[in-house]
Amino acid sequence: MKNKYGFTLTELIIGITISAVVLLAVLSFVSNVMSDFWKSQKKTQFITTLYDFTNKVNEYRQVYDGIFVIDNWDDNFDSIMLYSTGSTGVLFGVLDSETVQLDLASNNSVYWKKLIWYKELIPSQVTDIIADSNNANSYDFFRDKVFQNIYVESFQLTPYNTGALVNLDLAILVYYKPDLDGSDMSDLITGDTFELILTF
Fold it and tell me: What is the value of pTM for the model shown?
């Protein structure tokens, strides 16, 4: 016999259970869509910034005829200076975002936010770096000359043809995740890093 005044307790429990299952399925779908959208947006930003970086290096290559590679043997972060003898130059490298200086002492096996920066140099700084490449470590960079969406794992340079050309072996974290700071790079999921070689 049906209850004239509404649903029975059993019917209410069944209805709530079905609604909860449907709601969970909808929330899971929305979460996946939002995650895919976030990843797509990050990937677009990453590709755009990488394009900006290569354009900026090529732009300076048109101005300067000299290449000076600062090879940091103890780490995966080299630096490159483009310059003209007796004139100005520009320095590209991976920086520690805290000190805003070249990140030569960093341990590349530890997950951390490392970005590519560049600094325009006056003639005396160019001369100082050629005389002793360690001088580059003391220069402060400016926060407006940074490629914000390129999170670097490795930045290694190999000069060819007596320095006329340079190959940049670049390993990049596609998605930077602050909650992983300080963790071991070997724990990263395959696909979180992207490797490419650029020639300048």
Answer: 0.74
